[in-house]
Amino acid sequence: MSQISHNLDSDALMKSQVYREATQKAETGKVRIYALKRKFVDEQYDVPEEAKQVLYYSLAIGHHLGVVDCLEVEIEASRTEYQDWIELLEPQSRAYQKMHGFFTFGEITVYPDHIHMLACAFAKVDKARMSDKQRAMTDKFIEVLTAIYHEQTMYLMIRDR
Description:
Layout: H1 2-15, H2 17-23, E1 30-41, H3 49-60, E2 67-78, H4 79-86, H5 94-105, E3 107-110, H6 112-124, H7 132-150, E4 156-159
Antiparallel strand pairs: 1-2, 1-4, 3-4
Helix pairs in contact: 6-7
C-alpha cells in the first residue's frame, strides 16, 4: 500500500508547477566559455589500494572516473554577441559548424583535436571587421586554445550556465 501511495505522490510531484520550474532549463541570455583549470580526484570514500591503481591508470589514459573538473569562465558574451562573433567565420567551415553547435545542443565541448581548426579559422578573420568586443573575444579564445595545445588534458566548454 505504501508503494502505491509513494508512486501517486511521485506522479503528482512530477506534474506540479514546482517540479516544472525546478527542472526547467533557465535561459540566462549569456554564453560562457569555460576552460578546465584543474582537476581533482574525489577521495571522500575509503577506496582500496587496488581500486586506486585502476582509478589512477584511467586518469593517465584520459578517462574521468571519479574526477571533478574545475572550470572557470574565460569569455562571457550575450547570445547576440556570440552569434555575431561566430558569423565572422566562413559559414560553411567546420569551425563555424562547431561553434554554431551551441545553438543546437545548448553546449559544446572543444577538445585538443579541435584547437588547430578553430585557431586557424579565427586567426583568418579580418580584425578590421571586428568590434572591440569581438577582437577581445578572439584574442582570448586563441590564447586559451594555445594553452590547450600546450596542456592536452585541458578543454573548453561553451554553455549558457
